[in-house]
Amino acid sequence: MATPLSLKELSRKEVLLTAGHRMCSGCGAPTVVKMVLLASEYPIIAANATGCLEVSTCISEYTAWKIPWIHNAFENAAATISGVETMYRSLKKQGKLSKEIKFIAFGGDGGTYDIGFQSLSGAMERGHDMIYICYDNGAYMNTGIQRSSATPFGADTTTCPAGSVIPGKLQQRKDLTKIMAAHGIPYAAQASPSSWSDLMKKVRKALEIKGPKFMNIIAPCNRGWRSRTDDSILLSRLAVETCYWPLYEIENGVTRVTVKPKEKKPLVDFLKPQGRFKHMFAPENEWMLKAAQAEVNKNWERLLKEEAFTASLETPKE
Amino acid sequence: MGQEIVAVTGNEAVANALRQVNPDVSAAYPITPATDIMQRFTSFVSNGLVKTEMILVESEHSAMSACIGASAAGGRVMTATSSQGLALMWEILFIASGSRLPIVMALVNRALSAPLNIHGDHSDGMGARDCGWIQLWSENAQEAYDNTIQAFRIAEHLDIRLPAMTCMDGFIISHSIERMEYLDDEAVKNFAGEFKTTNPLLDIEHPVSYGPLILPDYYMEFRRAHADVMSKVTKVVLDTAKDFEKISGRKYGLFETYRLEDAEIAFVILNSAAGTSKDVIDEFRNKGIKAGLLKPRLYRPFPYEEVGEALKHLKAVCVLDRADAFGASYGPLFTDIAASLYPYKERPILINKIYGLGGRDYLPEHAELVLNELAETAKTGKVKTFKEYIGVRE
Ligand SMILES: Cc1ncc(C[n+]2csc(CCOP(=O)(O)OP(=O)(O)O)c2C)c(N)n1
Ligand code: SF4
Ligand SMILES: [Mg+2]
Description:
The complex is a heterodimer.
Chain A: H1 7-12, H2 28-39, E1 44-48, H3 52-57, E2 69-71, H4 77-93, E3 102-108, H5 109-114, H6 117-126, E4 130-136, H7 176-181, E5 187-191, H8 196-208, E6 212-218, H9 222-225, H10 232-241, E7 247-251, E8 254-259, H11 268-271, H12 286-313
Parallel strand pairs in A: 1-2, 1-3, 3-4, 4-6, 5-6
Antiparallel strand pairs in A: 5-7, 7-8
Helix pairs in contact in A: 2-8, 4-6
Chain B: E1 3-9, H1 10-21, E2 25-28, H2 35-46, E3 53-56, H3 60-74, E4 77-81, H4 83-98, E5 104-109, H5 123-127, E6 134-137, H6 141-156, E7 164-169, E8 177-183, H7 185-192, E9 209-210, H8 219-230, H9 233-248, E10 255-258, E11 265-268, H10 273-286, E12 291-296, E13 298-300, H11 304-311, E14 316-321, H12 332-341, E15 349-354, H13 364-380, E16 387-389
Parallel strand pairs in B: 2-3, 2-4, 4-5, 5-7, 6-7, 11-12, 11-14, 14-15, 15-16
Antiparallel strand pairs in B: 1-8, 6-13, 10-12
Helix pairs in contact in B: 1-2, 1-6, 3-4, 6-9, 10-13, 11-12
The structure holds thiamine diphosphate, iron/sulfur cluster and magnesium ion (MG).
């Protein structure tokens, strides 16, 4: 069982991603990483896929990481950490190491949903004792806001720019959290930095579970979302309250929505403050708002049904 | 000096070398003709003959990526591949060498697609020759075995810490049975020694960051440091060979010369085709023609000075390449040999033949043709053609 969170305890802990890194002010990603590391009661070794988080936190001769950290390439954070974890198991078995250490890979949505998808799927299937954490900002931000398969429907990016003929991204997002759960891994979850205690509880829980775990955490990017620099937490909260980014976990096949909004807000509340959706509010693009809302509704209703259905499958505890 | 005489394939020999060295972790993915090495090795794992933890990855890209993670974590790591597998790793090969991780890889040389071909040529190894790895090339099963064992000592040497690949010809060596000698397990274990960690990720008391972003202010210094460290490799290779001779009785250098000292004409050729060439050289010697051969062993870093010294006295030299470099004038080995000889005012005439692509046989008559041409060129000073394909339909 994971130890319950206590603010008192957390406030005394060392922050393991130091200030002075070079991510944009107001970026959601370092907040997510700090919360993850703060939640852990174990020493962590991290791998990091190429992307904003990686390029901004370890620029020679400085590093913001107070834990052992490795960046290999863009698409292979999962394979890389699987190598670290395997060496750990080998040396432990040989009696050369005894400490309990946990392994986490961090990747952006591009490095996770797209180019790193195979490496991630392989590592999960092999059953390494690790958590893969995707910080999802919905585009390739580091290379200048290009579309990824995590980019929301309708968004204006630099490779699917909203033009007079094509009004932004025309496809819906890939539902990666569900795809990872379909690997049959013991734990997959979605979290948001706006619900810090939910996020940290999930990390603590995942760290106590043996085997491969996956977490998908929304991480607003004011550069790419065309939003105010101080709106990161607000936007990640709106993502949850509109049910665009539901907070749930799938533990051994059982789905549980961990935070249910008291009142489901209309999706436009999340879209409106973001410049990347501005064109969707033009009269001729009203259909886009409808399509986006319909997708959210469909996914949310399905999630609630999954929760009810999988609860009925749960084997009663003795 | 306990040695067991056996009749085995090149792959079996390499698999046994890997068993004797006993790495901590291995990550690999099947591809012909290297698959057989890992099949044999995983049976050692399944039967408890090694302590190695296997990572049976979903691609060669992940194999090399996982090897990097494992090596940076702090332990002995190896893999094996061929052809498309090496090509898929290409991006990550540079990260292994740039991060100075002593991973050892058995490369069973095979042609590259397209067209698809699973047989032996050197296109794969040549495509990766400048990625900052050490390359040791092997003529036969014995050399592949000996090079594999030495590769760990060389790669892990604290003065260099670089990844190393050992190369042998696909099928011609990997799948043919030859007589060779195994060292005993204890001798190899002692020769390889304990793995010494340097800045391991697993040392959580001393956290390190691997793989930083380095901007124009320092990137060039890192590359220069890599180049500097490459220049230390020859000494380590020679020192290792000396120690290896003590346990095996077999002598190794940076390259092998065959009847070269008093020769007037010579071949420069890599791997298995050197054997056929040596036989034909003997025939020509019997006819009074002074022929010889140089077979590179350490191909990266290439020992330009030593090779230049060994070849400079010749009248005519043919460099045989089992890979072409499309769009370049000559094959890859040729350009290295030409560069080795460039500093000398008096130097042999150089010609280049491309042979044996995609497993095409290299026959004694090919070697005879080349030696006859070289003898003629040496006499007249005239060159028929600087580069051509041999053993090919016109
Ligand atoms: C093989 C390869 N292709 C492309 C790139 C260029 N590249 C570097 S980071 C990046 C985008 C990263 O996007 P994401 O994973 O979403 O992280 P973010 O920057 O948004 O945090 C791209 C395309 C690369 N480094 N390697
Ligand atoms: S571009 Fe976006 S994701 Fe990247 S550092 Fe800036 S705010 Fe963060
Ligand atoms: Mg992104």
